[in-house]
Design a protein that fits this description.
The complex is a heterodimer of chains A (about 290) and B (about 290).
Chain A lengths: L16 H26 L15 H8 L1 H34 L2 H16 L2 H15 L7 H27 L1 H10 L4 H30 L2 H6 L6 H11 L6 H26 L21
Helix pairs in contact in A: 1-11, 2-11, 3-4, 3-6, 3-8, 4-6, 6-8, 7-8, 8-11, 10-11
Chain B lengths: L6 H12 L3 H23 E2 L2 E2 L2 H8 L1 H33 L3 H16 L2 H12 L4 H8 L12 H24 L4 H9 L4 H30 L2 H7 L10 H11 L1 H33 L4
Antiparallel strand pairs in B: 1-2
The chains are: A mainly alpha (about 290), B mainly alpha (about 290).
Amino acid sequence: MALTALPRTLPRSRPSLGRVLLFGGLFGYFLLPMVAVVLYSFATRWTANILPDGYTLDWWISAVTDSAVREAFGTTLILATLTALLDIVLVVPAAYWSRVRNRRIRTFIEVSAAIPFALPYIVIAFGLLQFAGIVTPGIQGTFPLLLLGHTAIAFPFMYWAVDGAMSAAGIERLSEAAEACGASPYQIIRRVVLPNIVPGIVSGALLSFATSFGEFAMVQTLARGVYTIPIWSAGEIRSYSGDAGAFNRLAAVTVVSFLVLFVLSGIVVYRNRGQIVRLLPSVANSEGRPTA
Amino acid sequence: MPPRTPLRVRARQMASRWAPAAPLMLLVSYCLIAPIIVLVLQAFWVNGAPSLELWGRVLGQASNQDAIVTSLGLGIASATVTLVIGSPAAWLISRMFASQRAFWMGLLNVAANFGGIGLAFSYLATLGVVGMVTLMIQALGIHFDPPRSSSVAALLMAYEYTNIPLFVLLTIPAMSILREDWWEAAQVASATRLQFWRRIGLPVLAPFLAAGWLLIFTWTIGIYGIAYGLAGQSGGTAARLITLQIGTTLQSDVITGTGQAAVLSVVLLAIAVVSLLSYRRLLRRAMRWL
């Protein structure tokens, strides 16, 4: 039973003081850190007053021209993009087959999706490092291992999104109908299945991308030589010793990565019309299929 | 007796049932299932024989005991604060007009996705030694020292930034099971708003809220990036957490630290398994009103 449709009629009362305090407080709490980081990225010197002493673009210029920052951004984007693509390629066929052919695939997927959902990434990363060291020492500590790790922890988001889209489209019936009309398996997938689940694939890809983009524990554990934006930022925080500009440059980089996540979640929310958002296996869909 | 299906045919049948899912299943086995098995083996096997020796050594260390207690305490505190603020917020947002609701859902979604090192830095820029809010309060002439960035109080404030949104997004769908007619019926029976909530509203929603609490508790214990970022400048004085202990052993000493990291990982694994099973049970219970 789907519960995502929120009721439109409501026992509503006048905005009370408590309500104003609650939402005003939350609004300030969510907004202040964003404002602070943006101001920091433009501030010349800011150690004594409420607002910065002056504003400058220097930190932005120095962040953009810094080769370490640019490289880290490149690596982060490549890693996140490959993660999303790999998840599409691996999850879509499995989800489709679990619906039209073999329900036992679904059981396997749903049980394993609980692993990255409940187990901390640092634990998965450590276990994977150990296991890879035993069976495939060649890729221990390399980018490919990290990519596999990110693909694995992001796969549930892709699965919930794609499976929800398949359920909404009634993919089993569509496939049967196409088969009855004499379509070849290739035609069915190309002309019937894929066009109907594009929204799910896009949502899933955005969420996989976002998962990989900000992830820290696995990058730090699995691939020592790989520098992503979170790794670079953590290094900056650790090595900070009051030198002018380091904090401000870090602020500029944080603003950019924040904007990326902002745009990604904006698209996901917009596409789902403000309904289900992080595609968690929330109360609404614990029984049956997720709502995408 | 019917002739046995030839092996080749059976293999082909097998392939047609599983092949499209095989790559994903391989990935999951390699990256998620096998690592768990390896960790458990490493925690319980010493020199080729089952043993609890590592457990005694790891759990006997004061720093690890400290980490486990702090992590559990932080998880309970954070989940409880989240519950207290998040439940009324979720209820009120679920009853908002569509446009207002979309605004809050958007804001919460952005905040929920903003974690890790970026959030740690944002915290420092807000409530660090020269953070914006710190400077604001000091500019008012009030003497104010912000909590140390790696203290439990600071971690709690930073964690809530993602925990509250996650909790609200998670529980909002459940809010729609409280039906309009129930409130009307209660009013007809001349019940007050308070009585309605005590006798009907809360009992119906309680399992959902408890499930949300449990997830936030579990996720909080597993947080690593934010804690790592906030522990940044304080070196040895940072609050000890299970995840940080694992991270530190991995960073410093992969050979001898493996046993300690494995034991602590299995502790986290046990917590995850227990809460996931309880979560399932709670939801099954909650569904009886549907």
